[in-house]
From TrEMBL:
Entry-linked PANTHER family: ISOFLAVONE REDUCTASE FAMILY PROTEIN (AFU_ORTHOLOGUE AFUA_1G12510), NMRA-LIKE FAMILY PROTEIN
Lineage: Eukaryota, Fungi, Dikarya, Ascomycota, Pezizomycotina
Pfam families registered for this protein in UniProt: NmrA
Species name: Rhizodiscina lignyota
Keywords attached to this entry: NADP, Oxidoreductase
Protein name according to UniProt: NAD(P)-binding protein
Record's keyword annotation contains Amino-acid biosynthesis: no
Domain NmrA-like: start-end pairs: 8-169
Source organism, top-level taxon: Eukaryota
C-alpha cells in the first residue's frame, strides 16, 4: 500500500495556547496541505477567541463553526484531527473521537504536548488523567475501527511554562518553591519549535495498513537542564539570583491529599504536577524524533527564555 500522509487537518482547540501555535506552523506549510481548518466552538464564546478565529481565517484557514463537538458531519473529509484542548477540556476527547470516527476520520493527535505518560508513575497522576482517558479510548476504538491511527506528541515541558508562577517560580520576587532537588531535570522545548515539529509530523509518510506504523509516538526534545542549570540561566537572563527553596516530594503528596479532601480540582492538578516534577516525570526518554525534521532548528532554553522575558505579552504569564 502507498504510504499515507495527513494532508487534510482539523485543529480542535485552535484558539488555545498550543492549538493556535500549531495552526500558525501549519499555515507556514499551507502549500503542502490540501485542507487546513480550525474548529470554532461557539458554545464557549469570548472576544479573545473571536479575534484568534478572525486572524486564522484571514490567514487562509478554513473555520468549522459549531456549538457542539458531537456532530459527525463537522469532521467529514478530514484525514486527521488535532485535539489541542486545555487540561480542563481534555475530558471531552472521547466524544470528539467518537464523532470524528463516525464522520470518517482515521487519525488523531490527542491533547498530549507534555510528558511521556508511560514514564514512571505519570499514568496514575491526576494531572494526566484525561490524557490517559484519551489514549485508552483510542485503543478501545481501534478494536472496532478499521485503520484507526494516532500520533502522541510528547515533549516534556514547554520552556515558557517551566518558569511560570503556577509551577512555583515567582519572577517578581525572584524566589521559587521547587519540588525535588537542584539536580532534578526536565525536558524543555519552546511552543514554537514543538508546534513546527508537530506540523511536519503530519506530512511524514507512514503505512496506514500497519498498526505498528499508524500508532505513532513522537518525542520532540529541546534541552534537559537541571533546576540548578535553569536558575543559572535565569540569572544570566534577568540579572538576578533567585532564592530557591527545595521541598521534599512528600509535601506535594500531602497537598494533593488535602486538595482531594477539599474537592479542590485546581489544587489537585497543581500538587499532582509537583509530584511529577519532583520525580523527573517530565524528563523525556530516548529515542528522540527531532532528526526526522531536520529543517527545524530547536532553540536552546536560554534563547527561549531571553525572548520570553523580552515579550510584553509573555510577561503577564511570567507574573511580571
Ligand atoms: N508541557 C507543558 O509545559 C504544557 C504547557 C501548556 C499546555 N500543555 C498541554 O497542551 C494541551 C493544550 O493546552 P493549552 O494550554 O493550549 O490549552 P488552553 O489554551 O487552556 O485551551 C485550549 C482550548 O481548549 C478548549 N476547551 C474546551 N473545553 C474547555 C474547558 N472546559 N476549559 C478550557 N478550555 C476548553 C478551548 O477551545 P474551545 O473553546 O474552542 O473549545 C481552548 O481554546 C494540554 O493538553 C496541555 O496539558 C502542556
Amino acid at each position: 500500500m502507498a504510504p499515507t500522509t495527513l494532508t487534510s487537518v482539523l485543529v480542535v482547540g485552535a484558539t488555545g495556547n498550543v492549538g493556535y501555535a500549531v495552526c500558525l506552523e501549519l499555515l507556514k506549510l499551507t502549500h503542502r496541505f490540501t485542507r487546513l481548518a480550525a474548529f470554532n466552538n461557539i458554545a464557549r464564546p469570548s472576544a479573545e477567541k473571536d479575534a484568534i478565529i478572525s486572524a486564522l481565517s484571514a490567514s487562509g484557514m478554513e473555520i468549522v463553526t459549531s456549538d457542539t463537538y458531537e456532530n459527525p458531519n463537522l469532521y467529514k473529509d478530514f484525514d486527521a484531527v488535532i485535539m489541542a484542548l486545555g487540561n480542563f477540556g481534555n475530558y471531552q476527547q472521547p466524544l470528539i473521537i467518537d464523532a470524528a470516527i463516525e464522520g470518517g476520520v482515521r487519525h488523531f493527535y490527542p491533547s498530549e504536548f507534555g510528558a511521556d505518560i508511560t514514564v514512571g508513575e505519570n499514568a496514575t497522576q491526576r494531572y494526566y488523567r484525561d490524557k490517559v482517558l484519551a489514549r485508552n479510548h483510542l485503543e478501545k476504538r481501534a478494536k472496532d475501527t478499521e485503520g484507526l491511527g494516532w500520533s502522541y506528541v510528547t515533549i516534556g515541558r514547554f520552556t515558557e511554562w517551566g518558569i511560570r508562577p503556577y509551577f512555583g517560580v515567582n519572577n517578581k520576587e525572584r524566589t521559587a518553591d521547587i519540588y525535588g532537588n537542584e539536580d532534578g531535570r526536565q525536558s524543555l522545548i519552546s511552543v514554537e519549535d514543538a508546534s513546527a515539529l508537530t506540523a511536519r509530523s503530519l506530512l511524514m509518510p507512514f503505512d496506514a495498513a500497519d498498526p505498528e506504523n499508524r500508532h505513532r509516538t513522537f518525542r520532540f526534545r529541546g534541552e534537559s537542564p537541571s533546576w540548578k542549570e535553569i536558575f543559572a540561566i535565569l540569572k544570566r537572563v534577568t540579572g538576578y539570583e533567585y532564592k530557591v527553596t527545595y521541598h521534599d516530594v512528600s509535601e506535594a503528596w500531602a497537598l494533593q491529599k488535602e486538595a482531594k479532601e477539599k474537592n479542590d480540582e485546581k489544587l489537585e492538578m497543581n500538587s499532582s504536577h509537583r509530584i511529577v516534577q519532583g520525580t523527573e516525570g517530565t524528563l523525556l526518554p530516548e529515542p528522540y524524533d527531532n532528526d526526522k525534521f531536520s529543517d527545524v532548528n530547536v532553540k536552546g532554553v536560554e534563547e527561549v527564555l531571553r525572548a520570553t522575558f523580552a515579550d510584553e505579552k509573555q510577561k503577564a504569564f511570567l507574573g511580571l
